[in-house]
Design goal:
Strand order of the largest sheet: 1-3-2
Number of helices: 15
Shape: globular
Number of strands: 3
Radius of gyration: 21 Å
Helix content: 40-55%
Length: about 325
């Protein structure tokens, strides 16, 4: 979760599809694991951030939070999460709404395709009689839900003993081990560290340690409860660079196609607009070919529909 919480990713951290825990590979000496667990849990008492999605075990609300947190900072998610859950408190409520309403409620979060994915997942759950899948394969079958999000729902809503590897966790594990980790190593290590029956607390503690202490820039190694077990301790090249699960620095937003897409979707939140105005709405009057390409990508993704010379959000 760099940027105070962004960086969750559904790039598959491991090929395995089982949620069962595994013995941690030799990233960490097995003999230190009990002590490491206790030290981190002791540190977490009274230090965990008070976030609204941590006050529920409702899998729908956990899913909403995890989808919002993909590539979006915690502060921005806090601004939208409560209103979104009030408007769509259940999968059935979300499924019954037009996709455009869900996109409208997503305002300010960016990466609007996530709103469509969440809407499609809600429809899948509603079509199954409102039964929320409680196993890894069932969660992975939901539209837009990849390995990270599926494991997060298992651990944080259903409290299954599975490790959750986001950017912060991947960075922390690589530093503890003192070397770059393959995807399978990172996931197996995370799974093997989870204390039996304490998956919720353990994963939240690891998230917060990575977000507030073991940060990408200027990690506070002197304040880390796991300093005595860390093979890096801030000295020499950072083993997290290039390690599996650790996001690279995001490409520039200003002037990007992402910015153009966001501007057009934002304009359409207020109602249909003439197709001929798309380039102007995106600030690309001098780049008509690029503007047409961006509109075509939005139409292809289902974020925008076109009819009779107008563009609008899907209904």
């Amino acid at each position: 979760m760099p940027l105070d919480g962004a960086g969750r990713s559904d790039v598959d951290p491991a090929p395995a599809r089982s949620a069962a825990t595994h013995p941690a590979p030799e990233v960490l000496p097995p003999a230190v694991v009990p002590e490491l667990r206790q030290e981190l849990l002791d540190w977490a008492r009274g230090r965990l951030r008070d976030l609204p999605w941590r006050r529920t075990r409702d899998p729908w609300r956990v899913l909403v939070a995890e989808v919002m947190l993909q590539q979006t900072a915690v502060g921005r998610v806090l601004e939208r999460y409560g209103d979104f859950c009030d408007r769509f408190p259940t999968p059935e409520a979300c499924a019954a709404a037009p996709a455009g309403d869900v996109i409208e409620a997503w305002r300010g979060l960016g990466y609007n395709r996530r709103a469509l994915h969440l809407h499609a997942a809600a429809r899948r759950i509603a079509a199954a009689g409102g039964v929320f899948p409680a196993d890894l394969d069932g969660l992975l079958a939901l539209p837009g839900v990849g390995p990270y999000t599926a494991r997060a729902v298992l651990a944080l809503a259903f409290e299954r003993d599975v490790g959750v590897v986001d950017t912060n966790v991947g960075r922390l594990l690589a530093r503890l081990g003192g070397r770059r980790l393959a995807r399978s190593e990172a996931q197996a290590t995370a799974d093997g560290l989870v204390p039996a029956g304490r998956a919720w607390l353990w994963n939240q503690a690891v998230f917060d340690l990575g977000a507030t202490v073991c940060t990408r820039r200027a990690p506070a190694c002197g304040n880390c409860p796991l300093r005595g077990h860390c093979a890096w301790v801030g000295e020499g090249p950072d083993p997290a660079d290039g390690s599996a699960g650790v996001s690279a620095v995001q490409s520039r937003f200003e002037g990007s196609d992402r910015q153009g897409r966001g501007r057009l979707v934002e304009a359409l939140r207020s109602g249909p607009q003439p197709s001929a105005a798309a380039a102007r709405l995106m600030g690309l009057e001098d780049q008509p070919l690029r503007a047409r390409r961006i509109v075509a990508s939005l139409l292809r993704d289902g974020l925008v529909t076109g009819h009779d010379g107008e563009l609008q959000l899907p209904v």
